[in-house]
Amino acid sequence: MDQPSPLSRNSTNSDKITALNETPIGNSTSKDYFKELNGKKFAGAHLLADLWGASHLDDKNYIEMALRKAIEACDATLLHVHLHHFGNGYGVSGVAVLAESHISVHTWPERDFAAFDIFMCGSCNPELALPVLQKQFNPRRMETEVHKRGVIR
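Below the sequence we write its predicted structure tokens.
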């Protein structure tokens, strides 16, 4: 675990990943959309969110709507959404592919549990998706972790 999310109910207060300027690394004529925070350069922030006691976890259309709202909140660019529903009363798995990376979801309605992975590079802030997920799925508990991916040492 790189750092707990400051929005997690089960974490301590720590540095929040904030929207950062694009930082070209290497070839000065190309942009690779790496971020810089506290002197570290990295590809992006990868947020893992576990929602316990959540609702609407077997509703494919509802999940797609919630993903679209989360993407809008992060100011990310949606390229494609693909979700698969495993049948009546069963879960949904899928991904929203973004220009800035992705949001994936896997749900277990029989356990009222959903797992979201939110990975974004560039100026997008994946933590802005958390209040949307809380509002849309109304979990009793949300546990989150933030990892910096592609850290240049």
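Residues 60-73 form the longest helix (14 residues).
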